Amino acid sequence: MKNETEEKKRRREFRNEDTASEEESEAVSQQQKQIIDSGSVTTHNNGHTIHCLTVIGQIEGHYILPSQNKTTKYEHVIPQIVAVEEDPQIDGLLMLLNTVGGDVEAGLALAELVAGMKKPTVSLVLGGGHSIGVPLAVAAKRSFIAESASMTIHPVRMNGLVLGIPQTLEYFQRMQDRITNFVTANSNMTKERFMSLAMNTQELVMDVGTVLDGPDAVEEGLIDSLGSLSDAMDWLIKMIDKERKKAKTAQGRRKEK
Predict the structure, then answer these.
(1) Domain locations in the chain?
(2) For position 37, what pLDDT does the model report?
């Protein structure tokens, strides 16, 4: 009788192990599918759930870019940002940037969404955060840049047929003002300094503007800190813990009332 009981116990343990193994395999499979479908991943570690969003290549807006271009489609990113903000299981957002820029309005729309999030957000520029990638980098509550990365600041311009009338130039100026105001409102750089770097004619051979290396971007006040992935993650976790503590304190005060 005793042997039978032990045998049943062993079989139950084996079944539990198989079930746990299947659940882990399913979780890994879902994570891999998420990476393939959207270039993003949600990680769980030490009680923190973080969504990692990548912005790579060229930001594709209202027009489809050629198939050989590596792109980030803004209509795919917008729902992800909304989902992160609304999902109670997700604690914060880590945004990894390596972009040459792209559609101005699409990039600015994404930047405004990130800037409007209540949850902790951290951005990390790797490789490059050029053109409209600049507003995206500064949109997070804390921004980091790798020492080997760079950022290009330049004025708004357009390819192809353009109507040569005063209204076109006024439209460009108004769009430039929107970008300038957003960047300076979300960083420690002044409008005057930003426009001075954007209109620099002494650095880029075929363009107007300035390339800032990682240390220069921090020194200019555009990016908060030099750092790597571990630095960005540590800061994000610290922000999450701070928000949790604040929420717990507020809940305690409500109970006292």
Answers:
(1) 1-38, 39-256
(2) 59
For 147-171, what is the HEC assignment? CCCEEEECCCCCCCCCCCCHHHHHH
Name the nearest CA neighbour of 88 among 117, 110, 115, 119.
119
- Based on the residue annotation, tell me whether 225 is a catalytic residue of this protein: no
CATH topology for 39-256? 2-enoyl-CoA Hydratase; Chain A, domain 1 (3.90.226)
pTM: 0.83
The catalytic residue among 154, 196, 225, 230 is 154
Residue ranges with strand state E in 61-192: 71-73, 92-102, 121-129, 142-145, 150-153
Q: Are 95 and 140 in contact (CB under 8 A)?
A: yes
80/155 Cα distance (integer angstroms): 29
C-alpha span between 136 and 74 (Å, rounded): 12
Tell me the C-alpha distance between 135 and 60, whole Å: 16
Instruction: For residues 20 and 99, give the distance between their C-alpha atoms in angstroms, rounded to a whole number.
Output: 39
What are the 10-residue block averages of pLDDT along the chain, 257 residues in total? 62 60 56 60 91 95 90 93 96 97 94 97 97 97 98 88 85 93 97 96 91 97 97 97 90 74
> Helix or strand or coil: residue 43?
strand
C-alpha torsion sign, points 186, 187, 193, 199: negative
Catalytic residue among 123, 131, 143, 187: 131
pLDDT of residue 40: 83
- pLDDT for the residue 56: 94
Annotation says 131 is catalytic: yes
